[in-house]
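SAMPLE LOG
Freezer: B-3
Tube label: C17
Construct: single chain, 205 aa
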Amino acid sequence: MRRKMCAAAGAAAAVALLAGCGGQAATGDGDSPYNGSEIEGAFTLPSTEFTDNKGEPYELKADSAGTYTAVFIGFTNCPDICPTTMADMSQAAGMLDAAERDQFRTVFITADPERDDPELLDMWLGSFDPSFVGLTTDLEKTDATAEELGISVSRPEDRSGDYQVDHGGQTLLFDPEGNSKVMWSYGTEPEKIAEDVETVIGEDA
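STRUCTURE (predicted):
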């Protein structure tokens, strides 16, 4: 219980540092087995219903069950953080062995559903890794999901032109039961991400 309380407190502190698009948080301390921040049990995948990048229904918690799922919230028109993070996740996945990669999935939830339809998500994510899952829904469900995961999202009221969406830069890793394990800040090296995925999978072996 004490470990979970400490993890939740650490997660709250890390999220506070990641409130703006591109914010950074400290990585794990010396007592943590992870390179990222340990957030065991601090968040749970919500049962939000989305449409995936293939145009199929996707229920976040149910359809992520049985896999170690990395969740990132961003948008395809993002100039730097989102493409960099997706490239890093692709590199990290490529460092896993075949068995580990079969158990691992990256999910990208768009914070800009008014522009990011399934076709655009599929094309954009496919340029990084065709195995990535892109999800879109309405604004209300998007914001509720982001809030449940402790990820900030903010859009301008006037969205008639070429606008930007502010969002947290963290990526959260969940276990096969949908409980959070590790949080990586923007800019975490792919090697460190891969090491954490291997560690988390190895803990359950």
